[in-house]
Design goal:
single chain, alpha+beta, three-stranded antiparallel β-sheet, 5 helices, 16% strand, globular, RNA-DNA hybrid ribonuclease activity, ribonuclease H
Length: 194
């Protein structure tokens, strides 16, 4: 493990935890690079900027081999619940994984894949995820953009300038196990996933 995220309710609590954590890590023979310890309001963790009230994702890409494509699709799959892009929109990227299974086999981005990457880049730049506010109820909203069921886990408050704070977007899998499913089955799967 080379990255650890420690979160506490207050800065004082975090200050109490830190010496204990450092001692526990050192007693197990693990080293901590003190210059990498971040306690400022802007924190970077696994490609994410953690701000005081929001989380912003960072995204870079280049694809030459199957291994590159797997890494790219993995990152986007991980970001996907925060970007609001459906699995159908990301489909051209999944196509990069088809074919020769040798990790060094060449891959080229199709025009459709380039377009999806541009959409992902726009979403990364424009969208943000909010921290949960424990005083506000969490709600699941189900929508049907482009006839693809989508859920939004969020919080709504008239007190906020941005009334809806999206905590996470939830999508059905790219390939369902059954080819024909009733709408109520799809909604039930989406709710269970939420």
């Amino acid at each position: 493990m080379d990255d650890i995220l420690v979160v506490a309710s207050t800065q004082d609590e975090l200050q109490r935890i830190q010496p204990w954590l450092m001692h526990a890590l050192h007693s197990d023979g693990l080293q901590v690079a003190l210059e990498k310890v971040q306690q400022q309001p802007l924190r970077k963790y696994l490609g994410v900027k953690i701000l005081e009230y929001t989380i912003q994702h960072q995204f870079e890409h280049s694809v030459y081999t199957l291994n590159d494509a797997q890494k790219l699709v993995g990152i986007i799959t991980w970001l996907h619940p925060y970007l609001g892009l459906t699995t159908a929109q990301l489909s051209p990227l999944f196509d990069l994984l088809k074919g020769d299974t040798d990790l060094k086999s060449p891959r080229t981005l199709t025009p459709e894949a380039h377009q999806v990457l541009e959409e992902v880049q726009r979403a990364v730049s424009a969208r943000q995820v909010h921290h949960i506010d424990p005083s506000i109820d969490v709600t699941v909203f189900i929508t049907t953009p482009d006839l693809h069921l989508t859920a939004i886990i969020g919080q709504w408050s008239d007190k906020w300038s941005d009334l809806l704070h999206v905590l996470e977007w939830v999508f059905l899998p790219h390939q369902l196990q059954k080819t024909a499913m009733a709408l109520f089955e799809l909604i039930a799967r989406l709710i269970i996933k939420c």
